[in-house]
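Contributing new complexes? Match this layout with benzoyl coenzyme A.
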Amino acid sequence: MESTNNLEKFQTIIDADTKIEPKDWMPEDYRKHLIRQISQHAHSEVIGMQPEGNWITRAPSLRAKLILLAKIQDEAGHGLYLYSACETLGISREELIDQLHTGKAKYSSIFNYAAITWADIGAIGWLVDGAAIVNQISLQRTSYGPYSRAMIRICKEESFHQRQGYEIMGKLALGTPEQKEMAQDALNRWWWPSLMMFGPHDSDSPHSGKAMTWRIKRESNDVLRQRFIDKTVQQAEVIGLKIPDDKLKWNEAKGVYEHGEINWEEFNQVINGNGPLNKIRLANHISAHENGAWVREAANAYAAKQKKEVLVA
Ligand code: BYC
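Output block (do not edit by hand):
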């Protein structure tokens, strides 16, 4: 029941920067808000395995292949931590997957773009994981305990991911003219979608108000996006690549890079199911889920057998 007493106690925990734990009382809207965000985050990790998975068989060396395999496995692990954190809010894994398959739950817009060259694998690590880290470092301080703890663990792995991507881009950018061109082309295609990962401007973000009051989000979409831009522009300079934004300019007084506007029409199309690969990404997930039914059945049968043996003993 949402008594004033419960609400006051809840907000006091939040304001004191102490974590809300699964068994604590929480407003229904807080619970729903978290289920929405954490599940979308989990779906992003798992759908995000697809663009990189395409390159496992075509990685240019054994070293590159091993690193890529390890990274993709990490992403699966991130999905699992996040699904588990989400389940502590009283929703089952089946319901979460169903929401993904029926289009009720989103996943990050970025994974609807194709990885067409090896440089795209570098760009994903450098830019996509780079943007994810900026967001996730901030989410380590989120108010819900299980989400916050998942973020702490995930961030450690993401920084390795970002560095492996930057290493690929650096090698290509400092290689032959053709390799440099391939790296620049990947940067050109992934830059703007990476900026979209942070979501709409604060003034157009319907969930931000409550998310900030409840300290689910600790910093706003625009603040995090700006931090990512400031960091990444300098990294591009070091390896001699050019950020594809004619309006990019250092503002000495503010200590930030001014930048051009995102194509919000494209963003809205992609998050509403009409990006380049939305249908393929979802169809692949549905088919993998259906093909894995026997694994779930076997695991359930084994768990039931174990339970029976414990009861008999
Ligand atoms: N894409 O009010 P807003 C990774 C939606 S994976 C799609 O600002 P909020 C990796 C938003 O959901 C890590 N949808 O929302 C894996 C909402 O729609 P609904 C991915 C987006 O929640 C493999 C509506 O727009 N990281 O690192 O306050 C390989 C209004 O937005 C997007 C996360 O998932 C988007 N980009 O803020 C490599 C971070 N942006 O739900 C790498 C966790 C907005 O009302 N999530 N929308 O239908 C968050 O931090 C926040 O949810 C967001 C949006 C900043 C994304």
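Reviewers usually confirm one structural detail per submission. For this one: The radius of gyration is 21 Å.
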